[in-house]
Design a protein that fits this description.
The complex is a heterodimer of chains A (567) and B (335). Chain A has 15 helices and 20 strands. Chain A is an alpha+beta fold. In chain A, strands 1, 7, 8, 9, 10, 11, 12, 15, 16, 17 and 18 form an eleven-stranded mixed beta sheet that branches. Chain A has a three-stranded antiparallel beta sheet with strand order 4-6-5, with helices on one face. A two-stranded antiparallel ribbon of chain A has the order 2-3. In chain A, a hairpin with a 2-residue loop joins strand 5 and strand 6. In chain A, helix 8 packs antiparallel against helix 10. Classes of the chains: A alpha+beta (567), B mainly alpha (335). At the A-B interface, helix 5, strand 9, helix 6 and helix 12 of A face helix 2, helix 4, helix 6, helix 10 and helix 11 of B.
Chain lengths: 567, 335
Amino acid sequence: MKLRAALLGAVAVLGFAPAAFAERGADGEVKLTFPQAVSIVNPYLSGGTKDILAAAMVLEPLAVVDPDGVLVPRLAVEIPTMENGGISEDMTSITWKLQPGLLWSDGTPVTADDAVFTWQYCTHPEGGCSQATKYEGVASVEAVDASTIKVTFAAPKPNPYTAFVSGLSPLLQKAQFEACLGAAAPTCTDANNMPIGTGPFMVTGFTVNDTVSMTANPNYRDPAKPAFATAVIKGGGDAEGSARAVMETGEFDYAWNTQIPPDSQAAMAAAGKGQFVVAFGTLVERIEMNTTDPSPALPEGERATAKHPHPILSDIKVRTALSKAIDRTILVEVGYGAGGRPTCNVIPGPEAWASDNEGCIAQDMPGAMALLDEAGWTDSDGDGIRDKDGKKLSLLYQTTVNPIRQDFQALIKDWWTELGVEVELKAIDPGVFFGGDPGSPDTFQKFYADVEMYANNSDNPDPETYLGQYQCKNAPSPETQWQGENINRFCDPAYDALHAELTQTTDIAKRQEIAKKLNDMVTKDSMTVIPLVHRGTLSAHSNSLGGVQINAWDMETWNVADWFRVK
Amino acid sequence: MLTFTLRRLLLAIPTLLVISLVIFLLVDLAPGSPMSEIPLTVPPDVRQRMIEALGADQPVFVRYVLWLRQFFWVEPAYLFDSWFGTTLAEGEQRILSWQSRSPVFTIIGQRLPQTLTVIGTAYLVGILIALPIGIYSAYRQYSLFDQGGTLFAMIGFSVPTFFSGTLFIIIFAVWLGWFPTKYDTQLNVTDWDSFVKQIKQMALPVMTLGLANAAAISRYMRSSMLDNMTMDYVRTARAKGMSERTVVLKHVLRNSLIPVVTVIALGIPSIFGGAIITENLFGVNGIGAALIGAIHASDLPMVQTLAFIFAVLIVLFNLIADILYGFLDPRIRYD
């Protein structure tokens, strides 16, 4: 796989040379296909990545994150730092400078007022903005002059690159969205579907949940870009169909999210019309251990709460044994192929932030058995299932309905059964599992099971917010209407204290060190989370499409201005 | 006949109201949340605010009454406005999809043409294939042709469209490269070339659905023909010295068509309903694909409105089938 990455890199580098001589619109049409269709082109009202990928071709932030996790300026002149005076000494404000002469696609100038408006738009209490976290802790955004934006925070902010950074929080045009503040936001259908942007393309046609048609923005700041005159995003179908349309029939140039079984990957790659590209972010498929007792015998309101510790999984030896019995390499081979790799970390990247924890990769069945024996779980009645004090070692293992997850469940069930653990499997509709409805017993937050499997990731290369999930106060419970990200109800005062330290630390090396420690506390030290597979985003592009640089830290379409037709 | 029609139409009003309430409650009781597609990185309080912005936290009866008002007053008023330039619906909230925040009727308007062309053509093709097969199979019962027809019908019946569709894609698109696998909804038919393109992209979905439709209708046609072939009037016609052609195509066929026409009429609402699987498979942005997408995203207003429109169509076409029956068979008249 390393070789493959190197080859892809070589292709990309070779591809760049002709791009320099191209002129805007010389390469005709670029066609993209997404398994889920685009519903809206306004990232602030969007429900998913599919919409934001389309929006990122039209709307731009002040800075984006490149494939290496490094910030690069987009609409800004440079990245503000403490050194260049862009960030105040007390870390309570950051000042961005807009590039001179920027124009919206309708020809009007981009000003700092647009940024101020964007902040007001997303933070309006009735607007229901889905990117509100990007503006969390922001006390005010001011236009110092027409091209200077000053963001002031309520408290010192060691990581101030949230507002107006990445495809998740681009600038909106004030003139277009002025009437769409707050409760009026969803009613502005035209603005939401055809936003005026500064990006390489502008939307010319939009059919909901089907097709977005775009043409090159005549006012784009680089007169030679984009190389394509038009772009089309066709949505719908499934991952297999999208991959086929690029890799086998060649109807499309780029397919996002083509996560298909490894054998299909190989068969499609053999057709020779395109290639799969993969980017590893922080997405980790994991098994979460319930530290509380989900027994249905407990009264509603106490079930799966901190009042009753889990009768089996409270013992770290059991948790460790369950982890040791799993062969993560086989899981990757079966489920993800090139799109995954085994991991023992909750924070698997960027590299500088990832712990060197690799102890779980090799399967250790005898070690796992020894641990269970040691913990007092033995098969006293000879039925193949371990027991202790008359209680059977029996677990309910739930996840969402998804073919790969069901394969994983079957494999892991086999290993655990070999270990002498009785496993009952359950698969829940993803809409219910992730729906968060407090009335449903099947949400992942409620966790009415012993272990559950899903994937989660950090939306920022800096994992401060992400690691904040495991603080005691974030445990879902009846008091919080079963909302909260601390699914395991993990609670360690030392963890909370260390996380508080992280929020105060500015030195980057020190931050990375703390993040690694926090990662280890929930994984190898306590075995609360059993990471399985570090999942990449697998996409496909045709051999005739050049300039693609897949990006796990920002939108995959982040550099669509540089895409071109290989001649 | 007129009083019968009027009575049926009046009776349809309470029926449809009850249906709308039942659909609304069922859709509302279904598990799932409109926030389930939002990445996990969005914290719970932000989710809560998004749900409030959608109005999804209102009690179910408030939402039902609001929807009734929007469906029966605001939307027709809006349509009226757009035709006559009046301002009846000004400032009124239309039914908005939770997923896309676009008016539901705009989405339906965008999608209906695709569904009608693709699914409608498939239905037509299905009928055109089915009728001759059914007629000839019955006329030559247990012949080689009849056996072949039965095999064809069995395959059409029992092979699900997600399988036959994928099979057609692999044969005709991947191996032979004749047809595209994804339907281009932006294609405008303006000249011969674009017309050929349109035919090509319609080929695979129409083939897939036509097979399934033809299978069902050919069986109805065959059995209805068989029933009539042994009737006394057929023997009389033959005894009068009429040609076989006249006997079969004039006497038997006309009488056999009565139940088949009913079946075909009752199938028409399903054209509007689209074909969920086939549309998804080939990327035809029809009503069926919209419905399944909305169900996945727990987009209640969209699911509710679509389901209700289907209910209206089914009630309507039941009535039409009954009236047609009266026209085709003078013995059955509702007077």
